[in-house]
# Entry
Amino acid sequence: MDIATNAVTGAQMMGDISFLVTLTNFPKEQINDETVELLRPYVAAPDFNYNAAKKVRSIATSVGMLIGKHPGQPARTTQASPAA
# Structure
């Protein structure tokens, strides 16, 4: 399992503007046994739990707020220093 590749691919998927719609409309009933087997290492990982997800979500929210990418949060602007 190549974690770096999976992280990049995952970030690209979640960065897609239609990710939540795609996830919501995913045809769950069409998941086959092979897919379940491929997901097993991820689901069995010790950090695949509610608390870890909550922590990552909290970090991502904080980073988003910092760079002004959080809903309801205006983008930060840099003001030029007054000339001395």
